[in-house]
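S1.2 Input.
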Amino acid sequence: MGASSDPTQDGSDEQQKRSEIYTYEAPWHIYAMNWSVRRDKNEFCGPLTSFDWNEAEPKRIGTSSIDTTCTIWDIEREAVDTQLIAHDKEVYDIAWGGVGVFASVSADGSVRVFDLRDKEHSTIIYESSEPDTPLVRLGWNKQDPRYMATIIMDSAKVVVLDIRFPTLPVVELQRHQASVNAIAWAPHSSCHICTAGDDSQALIWDLSSMGQPRKLLLSYGADDDDDDDDDGEEEDDEEEEEVWYDIAYLSTPNVIKEY
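S1.3 Output.
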């Protein structure tokens, strides 16, 4: 070990800066990273895992972190509006459901809903059936905020929830052959959701009849040249709007146009 340098040498009055390296072993492949600075304490907080923009109040975004917190930022003031200790373990995703309502999922296996009007309490909507099984992604239906969907780590199914009936899934989507890694509700429809998995498949579901068997509208394989319509039904004659999907596969973005 070498001797540490004198911070006052060469006439410098600056205090020697401290350098520390923290290692976090993520339980899945890391696709992105970011910095976060806590200006109130003038130090770095835990790495961020996800963020979501509040469409109802565009000046706000929410971020989640491995330090168990969710942070709400005011973009116009460039400041933290509030920071909540959201879970007992790392928070992996966050999603807005309204002006002051958001939800998060965590390594503690729970989906929790927060209302900024009552920052001291949260509501547990769902917990993994197996103890200590993390939930890694969350999607809140923007057209019908009664519904949200979440992904269980290393699971090939997607759990769809109705916040009016906590703890029990309203439906489980199971057609992937490997772990699901992404979900996205359609911005134009309240009953369509897209799921993507490690099986190189993106599936588009019709959930218009929650009490009936799930209808798979489209299956897109990242390795295939053509899309597959698993329903085998003829399309309606009435004119429908064009729908676009953006799916990332390895280093290539794929833009899909549905008629």
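S1.4 Remarks. Residues 48-178 form a domain with the Methylamine Dehydrogenase; Chain H fold (CATH 2.130.10.10).
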